[in-house]
Specification:
Ribonucleotide Reductase, subunit A; two-stranded antiparallel ribbon; binds fe (ii) ion; 496 residues; mainly alpha
């Protein structure tokens, strides 16, 4: 006869730990050996509940209990990474996923070019590397906070689901950066991870780090413009960090980029469907002049000039995120090998840039002048230029929709220096066409170039919820295909 098992307090504690280990392994999809990394588990055990508190306080307001048709990343191989199903957002399985290791990878740029990529934090660059990770990490929860009230005015369940998908993935991006901090930066990494949950978008005393992430995202047009233009800054920054000589950062960012693509899709198709609804309503009513604003608005759709003004605002605010065009911090991030350029590995120069120059447009004596600048100091300018090129594809596709509808209107990117608050153009008034203006000229015309009060009041008036399956608000066309090929009437969000 065997003795009955007697558990001491210590035994119970071990049991609990094992339970936590298993639970963690089950609830946090990961490919970083979380199950055998006791130190990492301990750090995450502390952070995870704080993260959930943040999500409940600052995540989508009013929909924490809804069942949302979400895609969950559960692996990094093409077959395994996307699983679809209805989930309550607080139960979403936020994971830690790194793109597969590339054997023999070397540092692609800067003074350590060609040396083996770092698997541990390079001591001499510790502070700079930590800062890069924290700044990137801070944008992720910031956008969730900015978008937290949008569910209430969603123009359809399809769009609401896309909003929440973006939100949970930004949450996962925060996890990705927090993983790097707690795994590789010890105590100060844990402190930074905590601080990422404490800053708040738009809060006076403890704001998010970057300006655009403290702006409001008050309506769905702002959301679509944000996901097209501002998430694209995210794409550019992630692409530059994917070139990092610090391999864990590179691998994190490479996987994040696969998710970012969906956010850009949401933005591009959101604006595109808005344009479609406008063009269709104009044609139906026999309106050919896109500036016949009053009649167009009476149809319950957004006039194209207003969309251009919204785009102008989001483009200019997002361009500021690239920092000063000429920057010694930018130079050091590149020279140290911590951050590359966009598509660094595909560029054919020497990847050190000691003797190269790059053209930077500057404001000198009241004139716009292209100046040859040491390329190292112009890294931010170059990433911004690459960003502007990257923005154009979707804008061309929007213009195609308008052209096909037979309406004479074309979206344009405003001049790089338009409405800038950071960098070479800060403090100079410049028109979308690139003309330097006096303050009085700017004041007289800025309402034609940026959303004015009447625009915002009109947009607000359109933001009525449309929460019936298969139904869409007047101002936005249905999508061509459903998520994961679901039928038109599919209930993407079950609201209780
Ligand atoms: Fe993100
Ligand atoms: Fe994003």
């Amino acid at each position: 006869m065997s003795q009955p098992e007697i558990l001491t307090e210590d035994d119970a504690a071990i049991h609990d730990e094992r339970f936590v280990q298993v639970k963690y392994d089950a609830s946090i999809p990961n490919n970083v050996n979380l199950e055998s990394d006791r130190q990492l588990q301990r750090a995450l055990e502390e952070w995870h509940p704080a993260y959930l508190d943040w999500w409940k306080d600052m995540g989508p307001d009013g929909f924490q209990n809804a069942d949302v048709y979400l895609r969950t990343a559960v692996g990094v191989d093409p077959a395994g990474w996307a699983k679809f199903g209805h989930v309550k957002m607080p139960d979403y399985r936020w994971g830690i996923l790194l793109a597969p290791k590339v054997e023999g990878r070397t540092i692609p740029c800067g003074r350590h070019k060609g040396q083996p990529a770092w698997q541990e934090v390079p001591g001499e660059y510790r502070a700079l590397l930590r800062r890069l990770i924290v700044v990137q990490g801070d944008t992720e929860p910031a956008s969730v906070e900015q978008q937290r009230f949008l569910g209430r005015t969603a123009p359809s369940l399809y769009d609401m689901r896309n909003l929440f998908q973006v939100n949970v993935e930004e949450g996962r991006h925060l996890w990705a950066m927090v993983y790097l901090l707690v795994k590789h930066f010890g105590r100060d990494g844990r402190e930074e991870a905590q601080a990422l949950l404490e800053r708040r978008s738009g809060e006076k005393d403890n704001p998010r780090i970057l300006g655009a992430f403290n702006e409001r995202t008050p309506d769905w047009l702002s959301f679509f413009m944000f996901t097209y233009f501002t998430d694209r800054d995210g794409k550019m920054q992630l692409a530059a960090l994917a070139e990092s000589g610090f391999d864990p950062l590179s691998r994190s960012c490479r996987f994040m980029l696969t998710e970012e693509a969906h956010h850009l899709f949401v933005g591009e198709t959101g604006v595109g469907r808005t344009i479609e609804a406008t063009c269709a309503a104009m044609n139906k009513a026999g309106i050919t002049d896109p500036y016949d604003v009053e009649r167009i608005r009476a149809l319950g759709v957004v006039d194209l000039p207003l969309l251009q003004r919204k785009a102008n605002f989001h483009m200019s605010v997002t361009r500021d995120l690239f920092g000063s065009e000429i920057s010694s911090n930018g130079a050091e991030a590149f020279s140290s090998g911590l951050k590359g350029r966009f598509n660094e590995a595909k560029l054919t120069d020497d990847h050190e840039l000691q003797n190269e120059t790059y053209k930077v447009t500057r404001v000198i004596d009241g004139k716009l002048v292209d100046e040859d600048t040491p390329a190292l100091r112009a890294i931010n300018c170059r990433l911004l230029d690459d960003y502007m090129t990257d923005c154009q594809g979707g804008i061309d596709r929007w213009n195609n929709i308008i052209r096909k509808a037979g309406i004479a209107f074309e979206f344009k990117q405003p001049y790089k220096g338009f409405n800038r608050k950071i960098g070479e153009f800060a403090g100079t008034r410049i028109s979308p066409d690139g003309e330097i203006l006096s303050e009085a000229e700017w004041q007289a015309s800025s309402g034609l170039w940026l959303p004015n009060d009447a625009d915002m009041a009109f947009i607000t008036s359109l933001m009525k919820p449309c929460h019936e399956p298969g139904q869409y608000a007047s101002w936005i066309a249905p999508p061509r295909v459903g998520i994961n090929n679901q039928p038109a009437e599919f209930e993407y969000v079950k609201i209780y």
